[in-house]
Structures are given as C-alpha cells and as structure tokens.
# Entry
Amino acid sequence: SQFMARFDVPGLSVAIARHGRLVYRKGFGYADIDQRERMTEFHLFRIASIAKPVTSACVFCFIEKGVLQLSDFVFGRRGWLGFDYGKNYPDSLNSITVRHLLTHTCGGWGNGNHDPMFLNPWMSHDQLIEWVISTQPLKCTPGTCYEYSNFGYCLLGRILEKISGRIYREVVQESILEKCGIDSMRIAGNTLAERAGSEVVYYGKNGYSPYDMNVSRMDSHGGWIATPSDLLRFSAHVDRFNSTTDILQS
# Structure
C-alpha cells in the first residue's frame, strides 16, 4: 500500500514461488480505474523486456535440436535471413551471428533515442528491418562492443519464424509456453480497443500515452502480456534447480 501510494500505482499483482511451487499470489488496487474493476491475480500485464528470456529460451530449444547454432550467421549468403531485406550487405552485417544477437554484441542498433523499434510505428517487421539495414549502419564490428538492442531480439524472432515456418507467437507457444503449463500469455495489442480479456488498463503520466507504441511489433523483444504466475512458471522451468523439470538440457 505504501509503494502504491508513493508512486501513484493504480493496481499491482504479486506472485511468489518457493522450490518451484506457487505459494502466494494476490492482486491489489484496480485493473481499470474508470470501471472500478478490482485487480486479481489473473490479470495480464505487458511484461516488456522480460520477453527476451522467453525468446532466448526458444532459440536454445532449436539449438538443442541441432537445427540452429550460436555461430550461425544472420544475413547474407550463409545467413538464416539471407537477402530477405536487401540485395547486398556490408561485410560487417554479414558477420553478425546468432550469438551476437543474444548477447547484445551485434555492433549497434541500441535502445537510445534512435532505437529502431520505436521508430516508424506504421511499418511491418519486414519494412522496418529493411529500413534499418539501409539507413542505420553498425557502429562497430560485431562481437567487439556491447549495446543493449531491442532490434537484435526482433531479428531473433524473425529467425525463429524462418526456421519453423510459423509465426513467432505460435512457435514460442509450442516450444516454450505449453511445456511450462502456460496458456494465458499472448502478444499484446497496441490500443485500448485491442485490450485482451483480463488485461489491465495502462495509465500514462506527463502527457505520455502507453497506447502510442506498436507493441505487437515488439513481439520477440517486448510484446508479451502475462500474469506474475505465468512468469514464475516459466522461470521455474529454466532455472537449473531440481525442484521443477527444466525444458532445456544445457
């Protein structure tokens, strides 16, 4: 209650697990202030970059199957995405590997003021990637510097689609979420009208609107909505502890 009052938080949801078993979950405040909808433990929230570990786990599922390797290239003649986004690429782009994308060492496309994932919101994934490649050259050689990159994880989502022949949401659902016993997670809509069932309403401050972003385009780096319990179930199945069977072997 003190935290909510201090930071003007309309609603809060908490879940706690011990030794892989859910021991506490509860909602506080409101999921929708205008409708006086009380928060419950089943309400869904945008989880932002917690989507990245989900995407990473899915990538490692394919690595363990022998379909994908960390050293695989992303672009060019030997890359998973080939020349889907341009006829020719500079050598630096052709040297980006899956490992570079996972570890934010691809050489650029950081999450500063010019983060590609927050630009040109009307563009599709394909349009955005083609635009970024043609207008935002890498700052350094891949593997030589760290720069947190939402766009890098967008590319990982497209690799998963290329490998599986399915859309990102479906391949993650089958490869990760179903194995963790999660059935409520989904990709968020962008507007209040696209609010999913049991999803909370978001409130901005200082003139900022949480509905001005293309959240669905952020799928593989920040587009999921989930309950706290969903996140605990996922964590318990990739944490390397013996209390719950992990979905990954290494």
Observations:
- The two ends are 41 Å apart (CA to CA).
- Residues 15 and 25 are 4 Å apart (CA to CA).
- The beta strands are 11-18, 21-32, 37-38, 45-46, 186-187, 224-226.
- The chain has a mean pLDDT of 96.
